[in-house]
Amino acid sequence: MTKKKEPKKSQKAKSEKKSALTEWQKRNIEFLKKKEAEKAEKKKRQEKLRLERKPKATDTDTEAEKVEEKTLSAEEKKKAKEAKKEEARKAKEAKKLQKLEAKKEKTPLQKAIHHALPVIITSAVILLISIFLVTPFSKKKIITVTGTSTVSQEEVIRDSGIKPSNYPFLLIFHHSTYEKNIISKNKMVKSAKFTYRFPNKLNIDIKEYSIIAYAQTDDGYQPILENGTRIGLVGASELPESFLTINLSSEKDIQKLVKAFSKLDRDLVNQIQIVSSADSATTSDLLKLEMHDGNVVRVPLSELAKKLPYYLKIKDSLPENSIVDMEVGIYATSESIEASVAADKEKAKNENKEESESDSKSDEENSQTESSEEATATESSEAEGVENQAPEATNEEHPNETAVVEQVAQQ
């Protein structure tokens, strides 16, 4: 019984091995079988050729046969080498395929771990975060401020509204609110940006408005920023060596002036020393610009960006302490000329006043004479009226006397 069963087991093992082979291995075996069959056929052909040849062959024939055999053997060797190379390459590919198949085929434990891995990772992260939040290190943070020149670090942190009890990740997620707080509470700050560095470092990058001028007040000087707003008073020690002074009361005019300066060349703006109102009756926005070279420029605020650049072209040809009037056109004058013109205007005004006063006096005299004549005429007319009315009054008052006088005259 045992002898009969053994061959069955071997057959089953062979069949299992065959089933275990991949398709590529099966094809490789078939290819090798074909090669062996081709080699056997070639040998049979060579033997037939030898048998068919004559027994009385010449030496030349034998040499030719040897050469042919050598050529055939060389070709066979080349083909054998190529076949070996192909077999080695295919064997390597087969090994790679087996490895890939082994990787694809995972054990149930590996499959369970693969499915549970995301849950394990997320739970571990949540656990670490919760442990970190419980510790006092979670509220510790290092805050630095960069980009400031006039504003201090303490002012920026105070204006941001950051508290010691705030968590760093809350500052990261709600950084826009803290940035807006800094910009709204501090007029010097142009922009603020939060940056985070692991684990608890925060940096606030600040950009400030530049100071373009100072406004002179009774209490001191107020810096004027590039957006036209004023900030708190500054001491005399904090003022720069050379600066622009703007003496305008209207905030709108200051903002317009700052916008006009932004359109002009920086060198031209630096030549201006004081800006004030010219108090013109004809032009309400006429400005008086006192330059560092001693000249004075009068120009409307609405036409400042258009007309003021011409000053650079004409300033070299001007005498010292000249006045450049740009109210209507552009012309140069001086204080002496304007003083003489003002004096002539005053004289003309005084002469006109005197003429008007003399004319008014003559008119008064004429009116007085006319009124006196009218008064005398009225008096004479009144006297005549009284005389004419007197007899009538006597007759009416003494009727008996008149009657007596008439009777005596008749006798």
TrEMBL record:
Q: Which GO terms describe its biological process?
A: FtsZ-dependent cytokinesis
- Asked if the keyword Ligase belongs to this entry, the reply reads no
Report membrane topology: Single-pass type II membrane protein
On whether Cell cycle is a keyword of this UniProt record, the answer is yes
Basic residues: bias regions:
1-12
Keywords, A to Z, come to: Cell cycle, Cell division, Cell membrane, Membrane, Transmembrane, Transmembrane helix
Domain POTRA, chain residue ranges per copy: 138-209
* UniProt-listed PANTHER family: CELL DIVISION PROTEIN DIVIB, CELL DIVISION PROTEIN FTSQ
Q: What does this protein do?
A: Cell division protein that may be involved in stabilizing or promoting the assembly of the division complex.
Name of the protein described by the UniProt record: Cell division protein DivIB
The record lists the organism as Streptococcus lutetiensis 033
The uppermost taxa in this organism's lineage are:
Bacteria, Bacillati, Bacillota, Bacilli, Lactobacillales
